[in-house]
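Response regulator structure dump, as promised
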Amino acid sequence: MTSILVVEDEFDVQQVVADVLRDEGYEVFVCGNGRDALARLREHRPDVVVMDVMMPILSGVQALEQIRKMPGLDGVPVILMSEMPPRSGEPRLWQAVLRKPFRLEQLLSAVARVMSGGASDGSR
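C-alpha cells r here:
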C-alpha cells in the first residue's frame, strides 16, 4: 500500500487532506510540524510527503532541506502546500506546489503525478 506523510500544523486542514487521501486508498500518517516529521521519517520512509510551508518549530522548507540530507530520503517526492509559493531562488527540493486554497482534485492529481515521476509547480 502506498504511504503518504501529511505534515500540516492546522488541524482541520491536516484532517481533510488525510481523510481525502485515505478515501483514495493511501496509508496516511500525520505530523503537526517539521520537527515531528523528521522524527517520523527516521522511523518510516513514505512514498510521498505532502507538507505545509509555514509551520511552527521548523518550516516546511527547513524540514525539506534536512530531509534531502537524510540517507534514503533524498528521492522521496515532496508536495508543498502554501498560500505563497516558495521563492524561485530556493533550490528545487520539491516536486510540486499546491497553492492554498486548493481543490481536493488538485491534491489527488499532484500525488498521482509525483508518484509517476512527473513534477508540477501546481500554480495553474
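The chain has a mean pLDDT of 91.
lmk if u need the other ones
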